[in-house]
Write a structure and sequence with these properties.
Layout lengths: L8 E6 L5 E6 L7 E6 L6 E2 L7 E6 L5 E6 L7 E6 L6 E2 L7 E6 L5 E6 L7 E6 L6 E2 L8 E7 L5 E7 L5 E6 L5 E3 L10 E7 L4 E6 L10 E6 L6 E2 L8 E7 L7 E7 L7 E6 L6 E4 L14 E4 L6 E6 L7 E5 L5 E2 L3 E3 L3 E5 L6 E9 L11 E9 L3
Antiparallel strand pairs: 1-2, 2-3, 3-4, 5-6, 6-7, 7-8, 9-10, 10-11, 11-12, 13-14, 14-15, 15-16, 17-18, 18-19, 19-20, 21-22, 22-23, 23-24, 25-26, 26-30, 27-28, 27-31, 29-30, 31-32
C-alpha cells in the first residue's frame, strides 16, 4: 500500500485558467512526485511516477504543458516536459551538470531555468519548449548563486534570486541578459528573498522573505512593486512558522495567493491559500490526507502476467474503480482502454511494446473514509513480444 500516513505537499503552481493546482507531494511514495488537484484541493491525481524526486512544476500559460525538475539539486537533475494530464513525457535537457527550476515565458514559447554548465555555481539560461537553442543569460565569475528565475508579465525581463549564502536578493535582468538591476537591496547573512512569483495584473511580486526574523527562524510572504518599493507584509510568522514559495492565481477573478506552509521543522508542508491582503487563510491540501487506520485489507493481482494482449486486475473484494494508470520504466504515462465489473478489471495492453510496466490502481471504495482521491496500489506488468 503506497499511501503515506503523513506527507508533504509543496511548490504549488496555478494553471492559467485558475482551475487547477499542480504541486509536489509524497502522498504515495517517499519521493516527491507531481500531482494535480482542483483549485479547492479536491480530486488529487498523480501525474508522475519515478524513483527520484520530481520538483518545481510550472504550468504553461497556453494550458498545454507542465515542466518540472527531475532529481535533487545536483548534477543528475534534468528538466522534463509533459502534457497537463501526465502523458507525453519528454526530457528536455541532458548533460553532466545540473538543470532545474524551470519556468515558462508568458507566451509559452520559452523556458527559463538555472544550470551549472561551465560554472561551479548556478547561472540563468533559457531554451525553447522543445529543449533547443539553449542560451546562457547570466555569467558571473564570482561564487554566487543565480536561481529561481521567473519571467516578467510582458516577457521583457527575468527576475531571479542572487546570493552567496542565505543572503539572496532579487535581481531583474533584461531577457537577453544585457542590463541588470537590483530589485531588493543586498542582504546580510540570514536575510533572504528567494522564492517569488509575478502578480500578472498588478505590476507586483509576491515574495518569500526572512527579513523580519533572520536565518532559520521562519519565513513570511510580502508583496512588493516590481522595482522593489512598496513592501506589504501578508503574514506574520511565529514560532518558526514557514510561509513558503508563494504563487499567484493568474485567473483575474480569484484574487488569491497560494503558498506552502510549514508549522515548524518537525511537521510537513501543506498547501494553503489566502486573500490578497493576507486574510482568510485556508488549508487546501493537508499533510495527513490518509491514515493507515482507514485502510482495508485487499489482495490484487494481474492475470495473465506476463501478457501480450489483455490482462485482468483481479481482487478478493468488489472493485469500484476511480482510475488506472500505466507507467513505463521512465515514468511515461500510457493511456489504456479498460472495462470492469465487480469481479475484475479488463485492460487492453495489445498496443504496448514489450517491456516492464507499472500499473497504478486507485479507488475510493477501498477506503473507509478519507479526503484524498483514493487508495493506491502499484503492480508490475510484463508485456510479451507481440
Amino acid at each position: 500500500m503506497n499511501v503515506q500516513e503523513k506527507c508533504h505537499a509543496v511548490f504549488q503552481t496555478i494553471s492559467q485558467d485558475g482551475k487547477y493546482i499542480y504541486f509536489c507531494s509524497t502522498i504515495e511514495t517517499s519521493n516527491y512526485q507531481i500531482y494535480r488537484s482542483d483549485i479547492d484541493g479536491s480530486n488529487i491525481t498523480g501525474l508522475t511516477f519515478s524513483d527520484v524526486n520530481d520538483l518545481y512544476p510550472d504550468a504553461s500559460p497556453d494550458g498545454k504543458w507542465i515542466v518540472f525538475q527531475r532529481g535533487d539539486d545536483n548534477a543528475s537533475s534534468e528538466i522534463y516536459r509533459m502534457n497537463v494530464d501526465g502523458s507525453n513525457l519528454i526530457r528536455l535537457t541532458e548533460n553532466s551538470g545540473f538543470d532545474g527550476e524551470p519556468r515558462f515565458s508568458p507566451d509559452s514559447y520559452k523556458i527559463v531555468f538555472c544550470a551549472w554548465d561551465d560554472s561551479s555555481y548556478p547561472e540563468i539560461f533559457t531554451m525553447e519548449v522543445n529543449g533547443e537553442n539553449r542560451t546562457q543569460i547570466t555569467k558571473d565569475p564570482g561564487a554566487t548563486h543565480h536561481h529561481h528565475p521567473v519571467y516578467s508579465a510582458d516577457g521583457k525581463y527575468i527576475y531571479f534570486a542572487y546570493g552567496v549564502n542565505a543572503d539572496n536578493r532579487i535581481v531583474r535582468v533584461t531577457a537577453d541578459g544585457s542590463t541588470w538591476n537590483d530589485v531588493t537591496l543586498p542582504n546580510d547573512f540570514g536575510y533572504d528573498e528567494s522564492y517569488f512569483n509575478v502578480i500578472h495584473d498588478g505590476g507586483k511580486l509576491v515574495v518569500q522573505t526572512t527579513e523580519y526574523h533572520g536565518y532559520n527562524k521562519g519565513t513570511d510572504i510580502v508583496t512588493i512593486n516590481s522595482d522593489g518599493t512598496g513592501w506589504t507584509a501578508l503574514t506574520s510568522s511565529e514560532g518558526n512558522e514557514y510561509f513558503y514559495a508563494p504563487s499567484y492565481n493568474p485567473h483575474g477573478g480569484d484574487n488569491s495567493i497560494y503558498f506552502s506552509y510549514l508549522k515548524d521543522l518537525n511537521n510537513q508542508f501543506e498547501i494553503k491559500r489566502m486573500d490578497m491582503d493576507g486574510t482568510n487563510i485556508e488549508t487546501l491540501i493537508s499533510s495527513s490526507k490518509v491514515s493507515n487506520n482507514n485502510l482495508m485489507s485487499i489482495n490484487l493481482h494481474l492475470y495473465p502476467n506476463p501478457a501480450n494482449s489483455n490482462t485482468k486486475l483481479i481482487s478478493d473484494v468488489s472493485l469500484n474503480i476511480d482510475d488506472i494508470i500505466v507507467y513505463d520504466i521512465t515514468g511515461q504515462v500510457i493511456k489504456i482502454p479498460f472495462s470492469w465489473n465487480k469481479d475484475y478489471i479488463n485492460m487492453d495492453v495489445s498496443f504496448i511494446p514489450q517491456g516492464i510496466y507499472f500499473v497504478k490502481y486507485k479507488s475510493k471504495s477501498i477506503l473507509k473514509s478519507h479526503s484524498f482521491s483514493g487508495f493506491c496500489l502499484f503492480l508490475f506488468l510484463t508485456i510479451f513480444l507481440k
